[in-house]
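Progress narrative, work stream C.
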Amino acid sequence: MEAGDRSPNSRQPPFLLHFKISTLYHDWPTEIYQGATGNLLSPFMPLRIIELAGDPMQRGRRHGELLALEIRRMRRALLSYLLKVTGLVGLAPVLGLLLFFSRRFWTFIPSSFREEIRGLAAGAHLEPTFLLLINVLDDLANNFPRCSALAVGPDLTETGAWLTGRNLDYPLFTDVLVELQTLFVIRPHQGLPLASLAWPGYIGVCTGLNRAGVSLTQLSAMSRECSLRGMPAALRFRQALEKADNVQEVAVRILQAPATIGNNVLLCGPQGALVLEISARHAAVRHPVNGLLTVTNHYQSVAMAAVKGRFPRRPPLSVLPSYYFSEAYSQARNTRLQQLARPPLTPATLKKILADPQIANPGSVVCTFCAPADLTLWVAQAPVPPVNRGHFEKISLARQHSFF
């Protein structure tokens, strides 16, 4: 592939619900790592893990019924933020604009995902338009997250197998995103089962792994090319993971669908890794150099230089200072990843790399690393960001679910 043009009945208290879901799906062995600082920040609380199976309506309704209270918490967080930055007079028109523009994506969303959103809304007793907004908010905001990721090949790892890891850094809603982090284990009625580390109400994939061992990490990329006439990014990535069983085919499927915004997408599997650098109309592919791929929030391919965009200003009330919204910070994190990725690399050393103070930051709401060939994830658990300072829970998907 070369660079080129693209074709265009839960009402239980939250703690009880959390405990019920966690214990229901935590009858497999887990392994807990101490944080990189050596400090235990809080008693261990199992990661919320939910299995969703059946047709799209069934999956969506189950999701909504189990997490109705949490989805409403997400809704309150968004409305509260908009109220603070716009005032009471400005809230209705700004929210109305967001809902209006989110509906522009509807015809580009596959029918199965539209049905899942309808089921989700029915299960949570919320309007479908809000659930749609949750799933396209990053497309509308042109990807506010600041993220870092890497993939390391057999010559660099202790076991001789590919490993990959990522931080997802968000400038807003950090308390809610940390508390409500959820691993969805999805068995679609057609396609490959997959796991998606996300949040209540979110059906797309920004961090995921399918049964074939292909992992996907979505990062923002500042691009001058954006469009409302495309499939929302995280839904496009989920569709590719459901339909393809190797890194190259996942990449092809992502590039075939009409895009919306700039993204860097790190794909890693048992046999290799690559990065897709994407805008609304162009794309390029980066391959490992000496067994290493590092990714942050700027394009690194010469072919994408012409469509690089300006980094956004710091949003109001962000937990991050202005420097964190600059290409200089993105380049600095990328350089630091390259400096620290020295063999022999293991899950424990990836954890230390991602917790490095020049890489992690107060917006690091997700930290996870993955051994794709083993279908194994490690997920950070902490009460406050950066979550890298907390425990890491090891999850063996092949042992957890028979269909994996």
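Work stream C, second folded protein:
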Amino acid sequence: MKILLLTGKSPWPAKDGGAAAIVSLVDMLLLNNFQVSILAFNTTKHFSGPENIPTLYSKKVKVKYVSLDASIRIFPLLSNIFFSNKSLIKERFHSENYHKALSDWLKDDFDIVQAEGLAMAMYLPVVKSLSRALTIFRPHNVESNIWSMLSEEELNPIKKYYFRLLSRRLKKEEISSARSCDAIMTMTEEDMNWFSKYYKEKPAIVIPPALQSLKPEFVNIIPHSVAYIGSLDWLPNLNGLKWFISKVWPKVIEKLPDAVLRIAGRNPVRLKIKGRNIIFEGETESSSVFLCASRVMAIPLFSGSGIRMRIIEGMHLGRCIIATPTAVRGIHCTNGENIIFTDNSDIFADSVVKCLTDANYASYLSDNALKFAYKNFNIFEIAKRAGKFYNSLK
């Protein structure tokens, strides 16, 4: 089976959750011996190239890039608000060059063309007009829900208005994409339940991202350290980290003065770090190496959808993970058994301190996390389900 993936960025290097989710899917497709091709935008924000594709993939996956400057600029933003009924996300990723590249590549007679995320779903009508390939829409999350949540958090009335406007536009586009494709694949049951309200009698399946078993990196653990990793130009991540630094971290330091917060992430332009024992390490080359240098991971998030790849990765690495309820959405873990989740700053801080100071409890939590990840996010088992679904569409 020949499958073409339409992606908003190169999956490699997989330095954020979106890219990691695409790589996970590619791994599943290759395990089913499918022929995989990728037509990726190469944006200024996530600029990459063939040299970043690991040898394992470069020999098996065909990748083509289309350059795009998707930067947000003030005048196009204002024009979008006042003179358009489309979301800014859709307008930013509209490209005649991508349209042409896709049209040319469709001559290869693919069996399935899959849009990775809402921005790429706008190109599925092109596929239907020029090809007999079946189309799959794979939303990485429910974008409209995220912006609706952000509007509830926002205090600035102008931003609140815009977030609500964007949420309404995104919802229309999500519904349209769900109705126009041939099949839908989501990462969580929660997202599938949302989309299922807007389409009828359509093949659909939940396929969460999964990882092959990860071996913890042999690095020295920094005593009493907590790791945070995430894209710091994504507003939900930024808001969550600000909450952690301002509401939780001072309480941790009060009880454990030598505790250290290690932060890794891309583009921290709007993050002002003020706090004791906080180290910003920038964009890391290896998330596994970064995470394995700390016993504890913190994942604070208050608006979001889809699934957190970093939680799945952390569990596979046997880390003690403390998160908010929104962050664990779609993972179906057990609080206090294989993870801790709370949106109470006092409980969050106490849990961090307990995991840093109680070795037996930390081992209990991390061991259970590892078992949970192996059982529920085993790529070989999930790949089998995915393969059956793709083959059923023939």
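The two ends are 9 Å apart (CA to CA). No further action is required on this item.
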